[in-house]
Specification:
Layout (H helix, E strand, L loop, with lengths): L5 E3 L4 E3 L9 E2 L2 E5 L11 E6 L2 E10 L7 E11 L1 E10 L11 E4 L30 E10 L4 E12 L2 E6 L2 E6 L5
Parallel strand pairs: 4-12, 5-13
Antiparallel strand pairs: 1-2, 3-4, 6-9, 6-10, 7-11, 8-10, 11-12, 11-13
């Protein structure tokens, strides 16, 4: 059993997240922390987004050479008033290190708000069986719909398989979606 604990003082946020990793299961597979994409990161930031349907794409991941990463399932972690519409892995086709992330947009994004080095037309979704291109960077984009006056989630996460093992990756971004203006 592995526990992740984080406490941010100063009134910003307090998170106490106890995750039972070893022995947890997804379907018939044992869930393993880490893996080719890493564990994700502990909560390090809060993103406030005004709107009803929003997209947030701040994380960039790269599948290592020789890996066969396939997304299985995506979900929100400890969410209230938010529904996960979709999680996409959008390939970055840039020559710059890390490329460009989508950032925060209304969803679906207008074509003019999508950076030119994101291959939006060929995004990968969990469960489609497609393998991430080894060595290529991907922007992790979540599409969310607010279902209450204020919606929030402590993180978004996805399970994936590689080499016959199932792994969990969790974002480090707490997301709050509000009607008009963030305070």
């Amino acid at each position: 059993m592995k526990h992740w604990w984080l406490s941010v003082s100063g009134g910003l946020a307090v998170i106490a997240v106890a995750v039972t990793i070893i022995g947890s299961t997804v379907g018939s597979s044992t869930l393993v922390p880490g893996g080719p994409l890493g564990k994700g990161r502990l909560a390090t930031a809060e993103q406030c987004v005004p709107g009803k349907s929003v997209g947030v794409g701040d994380d960039v991941l790269t599948a290592p050479a020789g890996s066969d990463v396939r997304l299985i399932h995506a979900s929100l972690y400890k969410a209230h008033g938010l529904r996960l519409k979709a999680l996409y892995m959008v390939r970055i086709v840039s020559h710059r290190k890390g490329g460009t992330a989508l950032g925060t947009v209304t969803f679906p994004p207008k074509p003019s708000s999508i950076p030119s080095d994101l291959y939006w037309a060929h995004r990968i979704v969990p469960g489609d069986g497609e393998v991430l291109v080894p060595g290529a960077p991907y922007n992790v984009v979540v599409a969310l719909t607010r279902t209450a006056k204020i919606g929030y989630t402590l993180a978004f996460q996805f399970t994936y398989s590689s080499g016959g093992t199932t792994y969990l990756w969790r974002s480090g971004l707490q997301i709050k979606v509000v009607p008009r203006v963030c305070s």
